[in-house]
Amino acid sequence: MKYHFSLFLLAVLWNCQPRPASEASFEVGWDGALKTIMREGNLSGQVAVEEILKKKHVYALGAMEGLKGELLVWDGRPLIAMVRDSSLQLSQDGNGNAALAVYASVPRWSGAIPIPYNVRSYEALENFIRDAARKEKIDVGKPFPFLVEATANKLDYHIIDWPEEDTVHTHEKHLQAGMRGTLGAAPVKILGFYSAHHHGVFTHHSTNMHLHFMSMEAPIAGHVDSLILEGGKGGLFLPGGEQ
User: Fold this and answer.
1) What pTM did the predictor assign?
2) What is the Cα–Cα distance from 204 to 80, expressed in whole angstroms?
3) In whole angstroms, what is the distance from residue 130 CA to residue 142 CA?
4) Which is it for the CA torsion 113, 186, 121, 30, positive or negative?
5) Which of 198, 220, 222 is nearest to 209 (CA)?
6) Is residue 243 part of a domain?
């Protein structure tokens, strides 16, 4: 795979550790909706990335205007994965617009909650996150963000690069448009948003999660399609305090 990147940028992002929890709250917001993209083909920018970055301690994910790249914001630092000349390019430029973005200001995170050995698949991780959030007194009837630091035995991902002339949108075509790849035995950081009530908004109908990742060993970031975690080697971080 070809890619262009900034080692300094990645070093800064990799070293961003979740702040310990205290009496903290969080707020989740979003602009755009998957159903608007899928049904109406509306790929226009719904929010400026720089507006998202004005929020303190903001974490965000989504898709860029025109479906030309994947957005990840980690504690106020943007990382946009794009396809340029068949190469993966990572950018810290916060001047673009997002067609879809979900975000939260999280001043404090919990300590690492160990991910059990038998929680390895995407589906098992989703269930574990829901149950762990309940134990932490987070209202799982409302959307909430989370972080995962783990080793992925296998992680399938894509970076969308939608062809401008195509006006027919399907989930399968979105997976195929742009660049696809697989990581193996790779330590990763994952930002996710969980909601059982926002299918077609910022989660697809088959899942309650939307996940974006960055590799901790290579300059790779994007949207998580599926994963298998290495058993017993991961931690979950939830927002500190009650919503």
Assistant:
1) 0.88
2) 21
3) 11
4) positive
5) 198
6) no
Of residues 98, 100, 82, 96, the one with CA closest to residue 35? 100
Cα distances from 42 to residues 3, 49, 53, 186, in angstroms, run: 29, 18, 23, 35
User: Could you tell me the residue range of the domain that residue 209 belongs to?
Assistant: 113-237
Residues 139 and 166 in one domain: yes
Sorted by sequence, the CB contacts under 8 Å of residue 154 that are 6+ apart come out as 182, 183, 184, 226, 227, 228
- On average, the pLDDT of the chain sits at 90
Contacts of 142 (CB under 8 A, 6+ apart): 28, 195, 243
Give CA–CA dist 78/165, Å, rounded: 28
Q: What are the residues facing 188 on neighbouring strands? A: 150, 215
> Are 34 and 66 contained in the same domain?
yes
Distances (CA, A) of 124 to 203, 226, 232: 17, 12, 13
Q: What is the pLDDT of residues 209-235, one digit of tens each?
A: 999 999 999 999 999 999 999 999 999
Q: How far apart are CA 131 and CA 146, in angstroms?
A: 13
The residues, ordered by sequence, that sit 6+ positions from 178 with a Cβ below 8 Å of its Cβ are 83, 158, 159, 160, 161, 162
